[in-house]
Amino acid sequence: MRHKAFWLFVTVACSAMLHAEENPTGLPGDVRRILAKADRFEVLSLEPDGREWTTLGRAEVGDRAEQKAIVDAVEKGIAEGTGGAICFTPRHGIHATYKGKSVDVLICFECSVVVVEVNGKFRKPRLPTSRASQAVLDAVLRKAGVRQVLEPRRDE
Q1: Consecutive sets of 10 residues in the chain, 156 residues long: mean pLDDT of each?
Q2: Is the N or the C terminus of the chain less surrounded, counting Cβ atoms within 10 Å?
C-alpha cells in the first residue's frame, strides 16, 4: 500500500510541476503567451446560429498595449466569473497567431462562458466569465466599423 501511495504522490507532484504555469482561474499559460506575442491579433464579431457561429467581421489590433488591455479585461472577467449556463452562443472572440500556432478565445456574455481553442482543439473549455471585457471588445469592434449582433432581450 505504501508503494502505491508513493507513486500517487510522485504523479501528483510531477503533474503540479508540469502545470505550474497554468492559471486555474484564467487562461492557460501557453494561451497567454501566444496572445502576448501574437504576430496577428484580431477581435471577432460572431453571429450564433444554433450550435455554430459565423464570423461577421474582424478588427485587427496591432498595438501591443491595446492587445494587453484586451487580454487583461478577458482575464478579469474570468476571475470574476461565478458559473455559466449550459448554452453557448458566442458573439465575441479573439483570434491570435504566433509561430504557426493559433488561439481562439470565444466569449458568450449571455451564457457567462469562455471557450478556448488552440490550433482548433478545445482547451479548458467552459471557463466562467463576467461581463468585464464586453465594453472593451465592443469598443474595438465599433472603432473598426464591424457589425455586431445584439443579445436577445431578457424580460426582468
Answers
A1: 35 34 70 97 93 93 97 96 87 97 96 95 87 96 94 58
A2: C
